[in-house]
Design a protein that fits this description.
Blueprint: H1 13-24, H2 29-37, H3 43-52, E1 64-72, E2 75-82, H4 88-100, E3 106-109, E4 114-121, H5 126-143, H6 145-153, E5 157-165, E6 173-181, H7 188-206, H8 210-215, E7 220-226, E8 234-242, H9 253-269, H10 271-291, H11 296-307, E9 317-322, E10 325-333, H12 347-355, H13 361-384, H14 389-403, H15 408-418, H16 425-436
Helix pairs in contact: 4-13, 5-7, 9-10, 10-11, 10-13, 14-15
Bound molecules: (R)-mevalonate.
(R)-mevalonate is lined by residues 85, 276-277, 279-280, 283, 379-380, 383, 388.
Pathway: Metabolic intermediate metabolism; (R)-mevalonate degradation; (S)-3-hydroxy-3-methylglutaryl-CoA from (R)-mevalonate: step 1/1
Catalytic activity: (R)-mevalonate + 2 NAD(+) + CoA = (3S)-3-hydroxy-3-methylglutaryl-CoA + 2 NADH + 2 H(+)
Pfam family, one: HMG-CoA_red
Length: 437
């Protein structure tokens, strides 16, 4: 069995690799070389990546691409996307072009409120906790004055705090619900700092509150943390056109529109479909969240919770046909930032913001919602017409060729061969074997 290691994080990068190679890689020089192959030759870029997290040994590349021709609220965008899935960018680009020719995307931010909670135990009387909260409310606000100063100057900060009694669900469970406006910052650090300071003040004040002393029951803070569930930070994006403009090979516009709406209804009704449907939406959203250095886990968690807000998991997109007009829209919660965090630290995220013409957080929310809607349109369009595999396997062809170490010439040959033929792993293997013989 391999021995545990102490003080690993204090070792130099070379020492860490040496330890890893000895204990887990049979000292294989090829494995060590893989780590080295992905080091950046620019020392300052490498140092930046080394410093992002602890114990960095190498860099893990994902492709950075753009999907052009997005017309959003009458403005053209090329949207940067970071993803490993072969068909995502192609699908986004196709959908962008399709809707550019039909008036483009309309997007609007509905609300921008973030929130966090101070969770605490309290087993005393309802009257005492209510009167304590009323007394302490202004002191909690005052206690975060210095943390809030800069955010307030820019027009943001703490919006409100309220007391929530959840003791009917979990014995003794209460929380303080705090709402925030964090403007162009995602605001996680700001919110958490405010909450922790308020929690401290809350406990300090509680210790000397007379009613609690009399009852000998004091609230006890369990934890203070922002919530990644942000249903009050919502964005909506939409496309619409006359159904006749949806005609495609083998389908009249009306047939296509009806089948499309039916596919959305299925995703609204059936969780098994809804999860995959929403996964397709997140193919687009996550790729842009990653390209812009935002927290994709936070976005994912919040979006899926929103999809289940009515106590069952459902589609995030909606579609209808009314008076011959097809309308397709998405509404999702997105807490993202255009300042702070990785956004100004990673050279490629900085570049992504330049490509997007330096959007503020509200504009970024719109772009993300559009990316999700476009991706979903492309996926559902394929599903209800040709099936998903045709396009998917075309894009996957290059991965199969790379797996088989195909040369440049072999790749060119394969691309033209499969131009008119169905791609499957087997078919590509056979084609290459034939070519190589
Ligand atoms: C694949 O990554 C995404 C899809 O499965 C989405 C969908 O089914 O709607 C194609």
């Amino acid at each position: 069995m391999n021995q545990p290691v102490t003080g690993f994080s204090k070792k130099s990068k070379a020492e860490k690799i040496e330890w890893l190679a000895k204990n887990y890689l049979q000292n294989n020089p090829e494995s060590i070389q893989i780590l080295r192959d992905y080091w950046n030759e620019n020392d300052s870029i490498q140092q930046l990546h080394d410093d992002f997290i602890e114990n960095t040994l190498s860099n893990y590349y994902l492709p950075f691409a753009v999907a052009p021709n997005f017309l959003i609220n009458e403005k053209m965008y090329a949207i940067p996307m970071v993803t490993e899935e072969s068909s995502v960018v192609a699908a986004a680009s196709n959908a962008a072009k399709f809707w550019m020719e039909r008036g483009g995307f309309k997007a609007e931010v509905i609300s921008t409120e973030k929130n966090g909670q101070i969770h605490f135990n309290y087993f005393g009387s309802e009257k005492s906790i209510n009167s304590f909260f009323e007394t302490v409310k202004s002191k909690l606000r005052a206690s975060i004055e210095s943390i809030e100063k800069n955010m307030k100057k820019r027009g943001g900060g703490l919006l409100d705090i309220s007391l929530v009694d959840k003791s009917h669900i979990l014995d003794g469970f209460f929380y303080i619900h705090a709402t925030f406006e964090t403007l162009d910052a995602m605001g996680a650090n700001f919110i958490n700092s405010c909450l922790e300071q308020m929690a401290h003040t809350f406990e300090e004040e509680a210790a000397t509150f007379e009613a609690f002393s009399k009852e000998n029951e004091f609230p006890e803070v369990i934890m203070s943390i922002l919530s990644n569930y942000v249903p009050e930070c919502l964005v909506r994006a939409e496309v619409s056109c006359n159904v006749s403009e949806l005609a495609t090979s083998g389908f009249t516009g009306n047939q296509f529109a009806e089948k499309f709406v039916r596919a959305i209804e299925i995703a609204k009704t059936e969780t098994r479909r809804a999860v995959t449907h929403n996964k397709g939406i997140m193919n687009g959203v996550d790729a842009v969240v990653l390209a812009t250095g935002n927290d994709f886990r936070a976005v994912e968690a919040g979006v899926h919770a929103y999809a289940a807000r009515n106590s069952y998991y459902s589609s995030l997109t909606h579609a209808k046909i009314e008076d011959g007009i097809f309308t397709f829209w998405i509404e999702i919660p997105l807490a993202v930032g255009t300042i702070g965090g990785l956004t100004s630290l990673h050279p490629l995220t900085k570049l992504a913001f330049e490509i997007l013409q330096k959007p503020n957080a509200k504009e970024l929310m719109k772009i993300l919602a559009v990316a999700g809607l476009a991706q979903n349109f492309a996926a559902v369009r394929s599903l209800i017409t040709t099936g998903i595999q045709k396009g998917h396997m075309k894009m996957h062809l290059m991965n199969i060729l790379n797996q088989m170490h195909a040369s440049k010439e072999e790749k060119q040959n394969a691309l033209s061969h499969f131009e008119t033929r169905a791609v499957s792993h087997n078919a590509v293997v056979q084609f290459l074997e034939k070519l190589r013989n």
